[in-house]
Structures are given as structure tokens and as C-alpha cells.
TrEMBL record:
It comes from the Bacteria. The keyword Transmembrane helix applies. The chain crosses the membrane at residues 21-39, 59-81. InterPro entries: 2TM_dom. Residues 11-101 form the 2TM domain. It comes from [Muricauda] lutisoli. Keywords: Membrane, Transmembrane, Transmembrane helix. This is 2TM domain-containing protein.
Length: 111
């Protein structure tokens, strides 16, 4: 009984650790990309040193950075909440049943 309780606690601790990592990922994404976007739009130009390039074309890569990092964050979300997406599980069960039926029909064909 105690072993089962320990297992449940370890699973809960693992889940909390995953959630903390996910929330940290979101916070870092928002802060870093927010600063980069403000840099691109010129809002932070007054805070930059004189020799720092201030032309907007220097910062064209920021859009790609936000897009790629956003896709990575989406994948992180899908992995973290994979147990909530029952579509994949149902699809897998349907495919297994389909192949089992096909195999059964082949076997019955030769009986």
C-alpha cells in the first residue's frame, strides 16, 4: 500500500516539475521575444548605445525567431498535455482493430 502511495507521489512530483518547466518556457518566450520585438520596432532605440545598429532591417530575423520558437513551444505544449488529447489514442485503437480484422479475414479465407 505504501509503495503505491510513493509511486503516486513520484508521478505527481514529475508532473509538477514538467508544468514548472513549461511555465518557465512560456515566461522566457514572452520576455525575450517581447524585448526583441520592442528592439525591432524602435521603441528601445533611446536605450541603445550610439554604435548599435538602429535600422529595422537589421532585425528582420526576429519574426523568424518568434515563429520558430512559437512552434517549439507548441510542440512542448502537445507533449505536456498528450494525455488530454484522446484523438490519438482512439485513432491508434481503430488502426489496431482494423489490422486485426484484416488478419482475421485472411486467416478465415484459408480455412
Amino acid at each position: 500500500m505504501e509503495t503505491n502511495r510513493n509511486l503516486l507521489r513520484r508521478n505527481a512530483e514529475k508532473r509538477v516539475k514538467e508544468l514548472k518547466g513549461y511555465y518557465s518556457h512560456i515566461i522566457i518566450f514572452v520576455i525575450v521575444n517581447g524585448i526583441l520585438y520592442l528592439l525591432k520596432t524602435g521603441v528601445l532605440n533611446s536605450l541603445l548605445p550610439e554604435a548599435f545598429p538602429k535600422e529595422s532591417y537589421y532585425y528582420d530575423w526576429i519574426n523568424a525567431n518568434i515563429l520558430i520558437w512559437g512552434l517549439i513551444l507548441l510542440v512542448h505544449t502537445l507533449i505536456l498535455f498528450r494525455h488530454k488529447f484522446t484523438f490519438f489514442k482512439k485513432w491508434e485503437e481503430r488502426q489496431i482493430q482494423k489490422y486485426m480484422d484484416e488478419d482475421r479475414s485472411k486467416v478465415d479465407k484459408y480455412k
